[in-house]
Amino acid sequence: MNKYEIALVVSTRIDDDQRNAALEKVKSYIDRYQGSVVDVDDQGKKRMAYEIQDMKEGYYYFITFEGPVDAPARIEKKLRIMDSVIRFLIVRQDA
What is the DSSP string of 58-87? Predict the structure, then answer.
């Protein structure tokens, strides 16, 4: 199992319940593809470097997880179609 990190920016146009549901959905994708969540770092609401979809701020999360080699690609497919996710990046962490 490799260690990965997802940097996730969630829309500010949704309420707290929807934002928490989106975060839980991402965690469920990790579990679905035989991964396990190690840590979730909630950075809160921050100003973005540039506007995305007419938004200047977003909620930032960093999710550390362990999973098989094919997990990031499969999770990325799901994240692309989530309306509440503005941007994301999945990177492999060095051992």
Answer: EEEEEEEEEE-TTHHHHHHHHHHT-TTEEE
Residue type, 44: G
Please name the helix (run of DSSP H) or strand (run of DSSP E) that holds residue 53, with its range, or none.
none
Model pLDDT for residues 9-48, shown as the tens digit of each residue:
999 999 999 999 999 999 999 999 999 999 999 999 999 9
Burial label, 40 (beta-carbon count in 10 A; 0-12, 13-18, 19+): middle
CB atoms within 10 A of CB 36: 11
